[in-house]
Design a protein that fits this description.
It is built from eight helices and seven strands, in the order ααβαβαβαβαβαβαβ. It has about 210 residues and is α/β, with parallel strands linked by helices. It has a seven-stranded mixed sheet with strand order 3-2-1-4-5-7-6, with helices on both faces.
């Protein structure tokens, strides 16, 4: 389905051309604070919560949907937070072309498209190639967080992450339904209020790894 595109003029929205001109993500913030990335930010509920908790970190929110980007930008501006920037860009493209080795403190992926039909599951974001790219971009000890409202995706993501030797599980099982103090978006809250669990995976990149560029 073709997206209805509207021009986004928000000062927190970063077109790719602006990033190219700046030369680095850090230049967009004007400081060298640790950088965290949310992949698929929806309308900005999660990124606002996490950025408010950690003013000592920079946050980049990305999504491929124009209207979600526009709404997220409005929410960021309304919040008054200065440590968030927004881009409309595909995650793998961003990681590969603009985020280099050991560049990210933390990555958040919340309720991505589950591609529920078996013939479409190869389109899911999480796979071994993507995790290799994530491992390259995360700092040693950096964290990958993944949450899904879809049973099959949550279970398979936990199994996949547990099988990758570059990551250490932060929980006793491959996934958990206990979110602790992890921020809950309005989308996630909808499922929790219906008594449906969120599948949550949190893994750290092991220290001392030598990872070649993907």
């Amino acid at each position: 389905m073709t997206q209805r595109m509207t021009l986004i003029t928000s000062p927190v929205f970063i077109p790719e051309a602006q990033l190219k001109k700046a030369g680095s993500i850090a230049a967009l913030f004007g400081n060298d604070h640790p950088l965290c990335l949310e992949i698929g930010c929806g309308i900005g509920d999660f990124i606002i919560q996490i950025a408010e908790r950690h003013p000592e970190r920079n946050y980049l929110a990305i999504d491929i949907f124009n209207q979600g980007c526009r709404q997220t930008c409005s929410r960021i501006e309304e919040s008054g937070l200065k440590n968030i920037r927004m881009m409309r860009i595909e995650a793998r493209y961003l990681l590969y072309h603009y985020l280099g080795k050991d560049s990210l403190q933390e990555i958040y992926i919340n309720c991505p498209d589950p591609w529920p039909k078996k013939r479409h599951r190869k389109r899911r974001l999480l796979n071994k190639d993507f995790l290799n790219l994530v491992a390259y971009c995360l700092l040693p000890g950096g964290t990958l967080n993944f949450a899904s409202d879809f049973d099959d995706y949550g279970e398979s993501a936990g199994e996949l992450l547990a099988s990758v030797s570059r990551f250490t599980n932060r929980h006793g099982t491959s996934y958990t339904h206990e979110l602790g103090d992890y921020p809950v978006s309005k989308y996630m809250r909808r499922f929790l209020d219906l008594g449906q669990p969120i599948f949550f995976c949190s893994y750290n990149k092991k220290e001392g790894l030598k990872i070649e560029p993907p």
